[in-house]
């Protein structure tokens, strides 16, 4: 599983490195994206993007993090 920690401060939206990670991941590889709780809007946007591309995902909510786990398929 490839894990991308998006909890560090970025000078721009965490959605940008999240999307970069998705597109750099090989098809069929499992990906885990970790967001801070205050990034709920990016988390929701990414879930909507995955749903629109028929990618199933698992959501994990912790006290201070939000985690999305999924297998990358061919995104259309």
List keywords for this structure.
four-stranded mixed β-sheet, Translation Initiation Factor IF3, 4 strands, alpha+beta, 76 residues
**Residue windows where pLDDT falls under 50 for at least 5 positions:** none
Q: Please give the alpha-carbon distance between the first and last residues.
A: 22 Å
Gross CATH architecture? 2-Layer Sandwich
SSE series:
EHEHEE
* Proportion of residues in helical segments: 25-40%
CATH fold-level name? Translation Initiation Factor IF3
* Alpha-beta classification: alpha+beta
Question: How many helices in DSSP terms?
Answer: 2
The total count of strands amounts to 4
Shape: globular
Describe this structure as you would to a colleague:
With 76 residues, this protein is an alpha+beta fold. The protein has a single domain (2-71), classed as TusA-like domain (Translation Initiation Factor IF3, 2-Layer Sandwich). Helix content is 30%, strand content 30%. The protein contains 2 helices and 4 strands, in the order E-H-E-H-E-E. It has helices at 15-24, 40-52, and strands at residues 2-5, 30-36, 57-61, 65-71. The two termini are 22 Å apart. The model has no long low-confidence stretch (mean pLDDT 92).
